[in-house]
Amino acid sequence: MARAARGSGSGSAALPLLHDGLVVASHGRHVLVETPEGERRICHPRGKKSQAVVGDRVKWQASEDEGTIEKVLERRNLFYRQDELRTKSFAANLDQVLILVAAEPEFSETQLARALIAAEAAHIAPRIALNKSDVAAPFARAWSRLAPYRAMTYEVMPLSLKASPEADRVALMQVLGGKTTLVLGPSGAGKSTLTNLLVPSASALTAEISQALNSGKHTTTSTSWYWIDAERSTAIIDSPGFQEFGLHHVEPMQLAHLMPDIAAHATACKFYNCTHLHEPGCGVIAAVSTPGQPCAIDASRYRIYREIFDELSQSRY
Ligand SMILES: Nc1nc2c(ncn2[C@@H]2O[C@H](COP(=O)(O)OP(=O)(O)OP(=O)(O)O)[C@@H](O)[C@H]2O)c(=O)[nH]1
Ligand SMILES: [Mg+2]
Ligand SMILES: [Zn+2]
């Protein structure tokens, strides 16, 4: 990441000395900033405008042993969710989002679909992995629930981070190497286990450690950036598990374009402004009602489309 290596503020002594930094963790309003030399320090935003998220490149100014974020550099992208009342930014400047679900606890297909839509909306490539293949029966069930996703452009990577860590490490590095990846998924899927596998020095808390430390809770509570290699070319970002995933930033009429299986049939609709809910001559409805056909739309995917479309239409009088 040579971009960060250039120092600034070497001009007039009267100007405040601004340093380059990368935001590597966020804890509420304050963040942890890493310097090009690899030092880390707590920084506070100067004002509302300088609220930074993990992955942001920033200019910061030292104040004793902490710092102040003076400027957040322009973002290449931002992955976020928009719930009814608030925006939750996960991370910025990403190459991809790895959505990790597991055989158990059973994952919510709606939340998976929503995370994929948010990635598409932010123009960030999504990937899916299904963990815990060692628990055979639940894994087989989960794998078949993912059939519509495997049939789309999304590959689903089977993992068993506990049972076959070495094989998984090799497979993961093929996908993650040279990139910055946000690891996202419900609580208990194995995001921190994955982080600890690839970054042994990461003290990302897995259940075993933290169960001892804090009365049974093992949940990650902040978003953190980890370098995988000494050259700092590969990074993963561990994030807290999510339960809801609001998409209020998506226009209802854009929704079909962000769901590849629906989009593939929307081109056949009679009306250009078809909502795919009730119109005659709708290519999407026709594709749902022909189960078994090679390119049919899975009924659960269509149900999810309708559910999100309704939700987005209601919030927009
Ligand atoms: N059976 C099985 N258990 C696993 C596997 N990978 C992780 N686990 C267990 O699943 C539990 C949750 O793992 P974590 O890595 O803490 O999950 P997380 O996604 O970080 O969860 P949050 O931080 O709450 O969002 C731990 O008890 C892990 O040991 C696996 O491949 N197989
Ligand atoms: Mg975790
Ligand atoms: Zn239609």
Structural overview:
There is one protein chain. This protein is an alpha/beta fold and 317 residues long. The chain has three domains: 2-72, Nucleic acid-binding proteins (OB fold (Dihydrolipoamide Acetyltransferase, E2P), Beta Barrel), CATH 2.40.50; 78-238, P-loop containing nucleotide triphosphate hydrolases (Rossmann fold, 3-Layer(aba) Sandwich); 252-314, Ribonucleotide Reductase Protein R1, domain 1 (Orthogonal Bundle). The chain has helices spanning 109-121, 136-145, 147-151, 165-176, 191-198, 207-213, 260-266, 283-288, 299-314; strands at residues 19-27, 30-34, 40-45, 57-63, 66-72, 78-82, 87-92, 96-102, 125-131, 156-158, 180-184, 223-227, 235-238. Magnesium ion (MG) binds at residues 191-192, 220, 238.
CATH-defined fold name of the largest domain: Rossmann fold
Report how far apart the termini are: 45 Å
N-to-C SSE string, H for helix and E for strand: EEEEEEEEHEHHEHEHHEEHHH
- Structural class by sheet pairing and helices: alpha/beta
Under the CATH scheme, which architecture of the largest domain would be assigned?
A: 3-Layer(aba) Sandwich
Supply the CATH class of the largest domain: Alpha Beta
- Helix count equals 9
Largest sheet: 5 strands, mixed, barrel
**Mean pLDDT metric:** 89
- What is the CATH superfamily label of the largest domain? P-loop containing nucleotide triphosphate hydrolases
Share of helix among residues? Answer: 25-40%
Radius of gyration: 22 Å
Number of strands: 13
